[in-house]
Amino acid sequence: MPDPFDPKLDPQATITPGDGGASTLATSEGESLEKEPPPGGADGKPRSLWSDAWHDLRRNPVFLVSGLVILFLVLIAIRPGLIASGNPLSCNLAKAGQGSQPGHPFGFDTQGCDVYTRTVYGARASIAVGVCATTGAALLGSVLGGLAGFFGSWWDGMLSRVADIFFGIPIILGGLVFLSVVTSGSVWPVVGFIVLLGWPQISRIARGSVVTAKQHDYVQAARALGAGSGRMLLRHIAPNAVAPVIVVATIALGTYIALEATLSFLGVGLKPPTVSWGIDISNASTQIRNAPHMLLWPAGALSVTVLAFIMLGDAVRDALDPKLR
Amino acid sequence: MGRYVIRRLLQMIPVFIGSTFLIFFMVYALGDPIAALFGDKAPDPATAARIRKDLYLDEPLWKQYLHYMRQILTGDFGTAFNGQQVTELMKSAFPVTLRLTIVALLFEILVGITLGVLSGLRRGRSVDTSVLLLTLIVVSIPTFVSGYVLQYLLGVKWGWVSPSVSPAAPFDELILPGLVLALTSLAYVTRLTRTSIAENSRADYVRTAVAKGLSRRRVVTRHLLRNSLIPVVTFIGTDIGALMGGAIVTERIFNIHGVGYQLYQGILRQNSPTVVGFVTVLVIVFLLANLLVDLLYAVLDPRIRYA
Amino acid sequence: MERRMDQQQTKNLLDVRDLRVEFRTRDGVAKAVNGVTYSVAAGETLAVLGESGSGKSVTAQAVMGILDSPPGFVTGGEVLFRGEDLLTMGAESRRRLRGAKIAMIFQDALSSLNPVMTVGAQLAEMYVVHQGMTRKDARARAAQLMDRVRIPAAQERLRDYPHQFSGGMRQRIMIAMALALEPDLIIADEPTTALDVTVQAQVMDLLAELQREYNMGLILITHDLGVVADVADRIAVMYAGRIVETAPVHELYAAPAHPYTRGLLDSIPRLDQKGRALYAIKGLPPSLTDIPPGCPFNPRCPRAQDICRTDRPPLFTVAPGRASACHFWKDTLDES
Q1: What value, to the nearest 5°, has the Cα angle with vertex A81 and ends A77 and A85?
Q2: Which residue ranges run through the membrane (chain B) (predicted)?
Q3: The domain containing residue B204 runs over which residues?
Q4: Helix, strand, or coil (residue A93)
Q5: Residue C19: which H helix or E strand, with range?
Q6: What is the domain range of residue C241?
Q7: Which residue of A has its CA nearest to C54?
């Protein structure tokens, strides 16, 4: 018997709170009201995922604050001279461990270097490692994961096993072993290592979202119409699979910065004369009882930086997928 | 059930081989164990050749790896360059790190789950918002920062706990290090529990439980919690391996002579048998913890038991 | 209408009077239930008929006291159970009634049963919580219950989990759970919708049989006119949060007094009209955040006049025990 109440015939049913037969549905429907303005609502035309997310983000204070902090950090990473006139490497041992004084608001560290200048210059290494490592891991991970998800079969199985192997190595341990044999103290070995151990995480996300996107009706339709693999991937699947990768990569950027600092702290990441918060925290840690200021400034800068990226990723995820809230 | 376990065990083998080989490769192929052994002195060619032969260093890498694995299977992890048996080092180090991990896990379970349940049941209220913000902040502070800050505040400034740990490392001295080790995971556990509780509290079966006339307390403890904690238990299980491997930073801050300390020393001195041995055991712990999680999952969720 | 209800109050099990429920969301207030009045006597089956969004389930949830709040709020009316208003009752006394005196059967038994508890434990829980029975006794009663709803090998299957049962068997377990404490009133919210057609009839027959045996009141919420005809005594048709027509089941089928009911009946395919195009009610139900003035059905009604767009029709008494919220109920009735 054809059902006169078939919800498929009834677009209102999805945005009408109340009667889905469940009190639980009432809530979820109430929420879908927030995300899907009825046709003709708000600005008169249906919004895409991204413009919809942007609409939410513009009004989200978490997004605005973390975005501004990140802009500022990127700016001083490129041009630290804008707010710090000194040289982070010119130090005066006579002043080692001294506290705040005129012209040197954060005092001096164990080597007699100006803590303020070093904290400002430290942003460069952190941002550089974070951005480069994330770009590398995201590119490698989404290409490998995307192809595995799209083509499936043995390639997919192989990739999963290889990813499992990398997951099996505790990341800090791997970093210690891998980087202890590298003598260069620049950012590149650190970036390389993070990409090496970071891509499996991204590839899993990319694979999952490609597999999901592949099952969508419009992709099946495009395939039925004879679209080639390359065109399918680029035109239909990639745009839909890219959102989760961006979210995870933004959050990962924060954790990569923390990882770089941890490795530098352990003495295998960046090495002097590169200026890094991790190195400064490590040096200051021996003097924490006498001069906690040496540790607190770089540690605070590091934490705020990591926090800004994680919060940005969190806000973007909420905007893209309100169900995860 | 039995077949499930066997299948999982078989799947672990390639991962075990791959992970250990990767570490083996980094230590033996990228580094130079002989040069490390002699430090700054030029090695005496005869001695170097003998050590090379003992460690099969003059054979291809895959053969070295096979020799090494064969030894490990007989319980022989080799000798550190200072003459100490690696197994001896392990006997002193692993119990310490195990205690530290147990303390950290207790924090995750007691504090993390409690906070997660509280905020999940009060979704959108101020308790929830502040717990969420707090977890974000905690996740953002690297362990070595929170470690030093807490050590300074609680240990030095206020004197609530001992700032350092004696070599015996009894449980009571490990409370602060355990908390520091747990912090990041604790924040994840809180967030995961919260999401899971919030999702499940809208599930049909919870509504049924309410319609049965059960008290709110019973609805939460008997129906909601059991379902919501399945993913949390899974996370905590897989975290065992990560905690033991990540203890390296915590152990350094509090000067605890555990696995992380031995590994750190081994890496700094390029003491290859120590490093490879310890990492191999950690990989085994990690894989076994994952297996345990899979089995636990089957116990907790009857739906996958016969799948 | 009012007088009839007052006279019947003593023997009515449940009297819902002018019940109002709204959902407060960020995008406005959705008025899901707007003054619903109905009653059920012991041993009687009332079918509440309506499409998604008509407020039939929300009304039931408000009666049961399991409305999700927020966003759902009861903003007015009374729910009298044996003359006592459930809405003003203390939370604890109301909880004791739930499951014991008023029980509910849900649509999707698979998601409505706890997936990680054995069905035995879920059934026994009723006796443990409400009657303080020991676990052992409660399990024995649970086995009897499962036997009563004709689940084969009841004793052994106590240990099984919901996913190990077929859809029909699961719904029998839901029925058993509702029946456990021999309640006075059972609210069944689309109890057979999720089942195969062949199983639907079995489950419905079982429910009807048990209802007669225990002389319970039954509120059967459904959108399936076929189910209604077989088991219901009376029908209440809901539209946009209101009752638009209420009548004894056979009278309503014979001659509907509301154009909406008429449209529903006409959209059932009939063998004697084979070859003719199937009738469909034009348009869509209104959004609950924006219910049109006048009669809420007017935009879709073939009979709509100016008065329908301005004046909201009250429930006119059509005959003893019959009412219709249509200005032109007489014309509609005569046409049939």
Answers
A1: 140
A2: 12-31, 98-119, 131-154, 174-192, 224-249, 275-300
A3: 86-300
A4: helix
A5: strand C12-25
A6: 2-101+189-335
A7: A19
Which residue in the block uniquely carries the two structure tokens 């041009």?
A79
This complex has an ipTM of: 0.86
Nearest to C16 by CA among C88, C93, C77: C77
Q: Does C62 touch chain B if contact means CB atoms closer than 8 Å?
A: no
Of A134, A125, A70, nearest in space to A305 by CA:
A70
Q: What is the CATH number of the domain that holds B126?
A: 1.10.3720.10
CB C167 within 8 A of CB C195: yes
The pTM of this model reads 0.81
Least confident segment among A189-193, B117-121, B122-126, C110-114: B122-126
Identify whether the C-beta of residue A320 lies closer than 8 Å to the C-beta of residue A53. yes
Helix, strand, coil fractions of chain A, as percent rounded to 5: 70, 0, 30
Residues in chain C within 8 Å Cβ distance of A31: 25
Q: Mean pLDDT across chain A, nearest whole number? A: 75
Residue pLDDT, tens place only, C67-113: 887 788 888 888 999 888 888 888 888 898 898 899 999 988 889 99
The contacts of residue C88 (CB under 8 Å, 6+ apart) are: none
Q: How far is B202 from chain C (nearest CA, A)?
A: 9
**Residue numbers in C near B209 (CB within 8 A):** 114
Cα separation, C218 vs C48, whole angstroms: 10
Q: Are residues C49 and C160 in the same domain?
A: no
Please count the structural domains in chain B: 2
Residue A102: alpha-carbon gap to chain centroid: 38
Question: Cα–Cα distance between B208 and B212 in angstroms, integer?
Answer: 6
Classify residue A286 by its DSSP letter. T
A74 has which bridge partners? none
CB contact under 8 Å between A169 and B137, yes or no, is no
Taking each continuous run of H as one helix and of E as one strand, the counts in chain C are 14, 12
- Partners of C78 in beta bridges: C17
User: Which of C152, C180, C208 is at the close of a domain?
Assistant: C180
For B202-216, give one letter per residue: b (16+ CB within 10 A) or e.
bbbbbbbbbbbbbbe
Instruction: Please report, for the domain that includes residue A168, its CATH number.
Output: 1.10.3720.10
From the list A144, A154, A107, the residue with the least C-alpha distance to A290 is A107
Structure tokens at C17: 């009077």
Specify the number of domains making up chain A. 1
CB contact, 8 Å: C256 with chain A?
Answer: no
**Domain C-terminal end among C180, C212, C228:** C180
C126-141 pLDDT per residue, tens: 999 999 889 999 999 9
**A positions 163-192 inside 8 Å of B (CB):** 164-166, 168-174, 176-178, 180-182
C25 and C160 fall within a common domain: no
Task: With a cut of 90, say whether residue B101 has pLDDT above it.
Answer: yes
- The residue in chain B having the minimum alpha-carbon distance to the alpha carbon of residue A264 is B144
- Number of domains forming the structure of chain C: 2
Q: Indicate yes or no: CB of A262 within 8 angstroms of CB of B16.
A: no
Quick: pLDDT tens for C260-301.
Answer: 888 888 877 766 766 666 677 787 888 888 888 888 888 888
Q: Is residue B78 part of a domain?
A: no
Residue ending a domain, among B73, B100, B120, is B73
Are C193 and C231 in a shared domain? yes
Distance from CA of B239 to the nearest CA of C (A): 24
